[in-house]
Design a protein that fits this description.
By secondary structure, the chain is of the alpha/beta class. The chain has helices spanning 3-19, 46-54, 58-61, 74-82, 88-102, 106-116, 122-133, 137-141, 144-153, 157-171, 175-183, 187-194, 201-206, 208-216, 221-231, 238-251, 254-264, 274-290, 299-313, 317-330, 381-389, 458-463, and strands spanning 333-338, 350-354, 358-364, 374-376, 409-412, 421-427, 433-438, 449-455. The strands form two sheets. It has a five-stranded mixed beta sheet with strand order 2-8-7-4-5, covered by helices on one side. The longest helix has 17 residues, at 3-19. The chain is globular. Residues 1-30 and 485-490 have low confidence and may be disordered.
Length: 490
């Protein structure tokens, strides 16, 4: 939990609660765990038990009485482990209980759970992958045979990536799993996709000598793109990564160039080599000019424009202003946001747009949970966040979820699933001010929020920038970019 959340939240909530009318319909989430009070018939045949469990909502399922020392409760734990939409802590509890009942270990039970999940349920797969990679290396090493089989033969790309990441974690070094992946058809691509999931930063760093040549060398586009995507998750080589990826922006095409653009966006701007920024920004302008006008609103094009904007912002005004002007003549205002893996935060605390002008926000979800973006009126963060938390999910999964029916909601997008990118297009308000943006998935708004600063003239603001205030603390933001917990921004 970040200091910002820990120190600011209580005062903000107390202020909010004291100002709410007594008839307010929205209440803060409960502070205690739901009691296990709901009982089902565990002595029935398996089909009847499964029927009982299917009829329970997630809220009811976590209140079902269960005992880890009684095998009759095994179906309950199996359901908790694989049920879509449950919190990770309940899945972890189920893995521990099943390992105790089956006299196995947690890693095996989680692997069995991954295999039991519907192949189309990528979200639950990713949540179980995260739980798997949190296991101790010794537990993963005990399951190397099964992990190897999944890495080679699973029908799910997510499972393949997770299996390779788990094998690397079990070994504590890259050599063996790299050799194994190279021997399997398409294996290197899946291993590269799993590298960002490895929790040990030192282990990720050990992959650099193997990943960098694949990212730099033209050949198999799918493998090269996967290497370009993975390399920015490797700490300790920011300057080399920037140079390598920048070269791909200038020379590569298609998926490889798009992967390089996305990967560059994950390198903290503070780590960019100053002597290379202007040249890359000029290259980006050239790339955008080559994109047909009709295609400049695609996610790949918008991400390229946003990279150019970020690069130009890091330059002195004399170099940066002409680049920004050129990009704006070619496109709409683009804001690229990333989620920070397992931290429930965006990578930016605020962004700036011009009043009355078109805006496109791209949300690239690198997390294992679904997230979205809602734009709200000034001062509406807590009101809208709590209202969203009181909503039930829609019956139709294609509908937008957790969007309050309020005139204070100015724009919103559907939930973006893990490893996917969503886009939100709207016209900025005509009235300048400090608007809010946040994730409306229940409970996420408490940490996952920021400020959309609307200014009368963007170029005038850039000439004399001001920092907006945090809607929770009411104090100016101390920094703009949010970095991951390992301090490397990766």
């Amino acid at each position: 939990m970040t200091n910002r959340f820990r120190t600011i939240l209580p005062a903000a909530l107390l202020s909010l609660i004291s100002s709410m009318p007594l008839c307010a319909a929205v209440a803060p989430p409960p502070a205690t765990e739901p009691a296990q009070t709901l009982e089902i018939a565990v002595d029935k045949n398996p089909r009847i038990i499964a029927y009982q469990l299917r009829r329970l909502s997630n809220a009811d399922l976590v209140t079902v009485i269960r005992k880890s020392d009684d095998p009759r409760y095994k179906p309950i734990y199996e359901t908790i482990l694989t049920r879509k939409g449950l919190d990770k802590k309940y899945r972890a509890e189920a893995a521990v209980a099943l390992a105790k009942m089956n006299k196995t270990d947690e890693a095996l039970e989680i692997l069995n759970g991954i295999g039991a999940v519907d192949p189309d349920d990528k979200l639950t797969q990713r949540e179980l992958v995260s739980l798997l990679l949190a296991q101790k290396p010794a537990g993963l090493a005990a399951q190397k045979e099964k992990l190897s089989a999944l890495a080679k033969d699973s029908e799910s790309n997510t499972v393949k990536q997770a299996a390779y990441a788990a094998l690397a974690t079990a070994d504590g070094k890259p050599d063996g799993v790299w050799q194994q992946a190279a021997a399997n058809e398409g294996g290197l691509k899946f291993l590269l996709g799993g590298i960002p999931w490895i929790k040990d930063a030192k282990l990720r760093e050990a992959f650099y000598p193997k990943v960098a040549p694949l990212a730099a060398k033209a050949g198999d586009d799918a493998t090269q793109a996967a290497a370009a995507e993975a390399i920015s998750s490797i700490p300790g080589h920011d300057t080399e990564e920037f140079s390598l990826l920048g070269g791909l922006v200038n020379t590569a095409k298609g998926d490889v160039r798009n992967a390089a653009v996305r990967s560059l966006g994950r390198i903290p701007s503070a780590k960019w080599p100053k002597d290379q920024i202007e040249a890359l920004a000029q290259d980006v302008v050239g790339v955008v000019k080559q994109i047909p006008s009709a295609d400049r609103t695609t996610p790949a094009a918008l991400q390229t424009v946003q990279l150019g904007e970020a690069l130009s912002a890091a330059l002195p005004p004399a170099q940066g202003v002409p680049i920004r002007k050129a990009l704006r003549e070619l496109s709409v205002r683009v804001i690229a946001l990333h989620t920070i893996r397992e931290q429930m935060e965006y990578d930016m605390r605020y962004f700036v747009v011009e009043a009355g002008k078109p805006v496109e926000i791209l949300l690239e979800n690198d997390d294992a949970m679904p997230h979205n973006i809602v734009i709200g009126a000034p001062g509406s963060l807590a009101e809208l966040g709590m209202a969203a938390g009181a909503m039930s999910p829609p019956a139709d999964e294609k509908e937008k979820a957790y969007i309050p029916d309020s005139p204070k909601v100015l724009a919103s997008m559907a939930l973006v699933q893990p490893d996917e990118t969503g886009a939100l297009s709207f016209t900025a308000p005509k009235t300048p001010g400090q608007y809010v943006f946040f994730c409306s998935f229940p409970g996420h708004w408490l940490k996952m929020y920021g400020t959309m600063l609307v200014v009368p003239n963007l170029e005038a603001w850039e000439a004399k920038p001001t920092v907006p205030t945090d809607p929770m603390s009411k104090k100016p933001y101390e920094k703009q970019k949010v970095e991951s917990e390992n301090g490397e921004g990766k």
